[in-house]
Amino acid sequence: MDILNWLYLAKNKFVRTTLGSEKDLMIFGSKVGFNKRGDLYQNYAMSVEDFTAAVVPTPTYKVYTALLTQSGGDDTQVIFNEDLTIGVTYLISYDGEIGEWDFTNVGAPNNLSGTYFVATGTTPNSWGGIGLLYNTGAPVVTVLENTIGNIYWTYSDVGYYLANLNGAFTEGKTIAFFGAQQSTGDEIGGYPESINYYAVYSWFEGVANDGTSERPIEIRVYN
């Protein structure tokens, strides 16, 4: 590239792109070309992905941040052809082969029986004549950030709930942070029960107790 063209492009900021672009980037600088008859020629380029990897640090952990609300005890219900509630964990449960139902637009990773998902919308693509199971005692979450994966919530016992995702909570590399207490005697905490479950407990004055509202929780899994 002629040095005058190089200066013209740099001055006018004509080199623009986006992540995922198939174009290569030309890296402007005094040491990225060669001289021929007094002109500097550009001879170095890299992909957008390589450039991003070079300038953006690799995260040291994956994170799940949410506001957690829980009320009521263990109570399994079923819903048919109604609006879903965002933040509630639903279970696709049907004995038979996959049908015409489709919940992938509201948070489901697939439409297979036995799949749990946290609703991200209210109206599925198709109900297909089946219902979804849910537990009114399982925590309802407002997810603020999630780079871990398809975490869903279940009710285990009074004041005891599980964040579920197979193989996600690496032993010795998983920690969590919880928001401040709502009132005197109110406590919420947790621990990794296994690589598949993160247990969250709720106490009031030292006794296991159902009921908490929009409590911040952040789970980190370090690389």
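[next item in queue]
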Amino acid sequence: MLLIPAGTPKPSGLSAMVSALWAAASTYGVYVTDQLGGGPMFYGDGSSAVGKAFNASDFSAVGKALRLAKTS
């Protein structure tokens, strides 16, 4: 499980979708479900809105803020 630690300042200028992911990651955390090469990778529902957000330049802010909270 990864999360954005409490008190981590949210960068300004995030898109609405990335802001929602930031809020979820800082409130509930996120689980690693697949291991691929490179940095964090998130999966969405396949909608065009999610697809656009996942290609947004501000999306990497979430991945850079995540910290390990629990290992299995």
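[queue empty]
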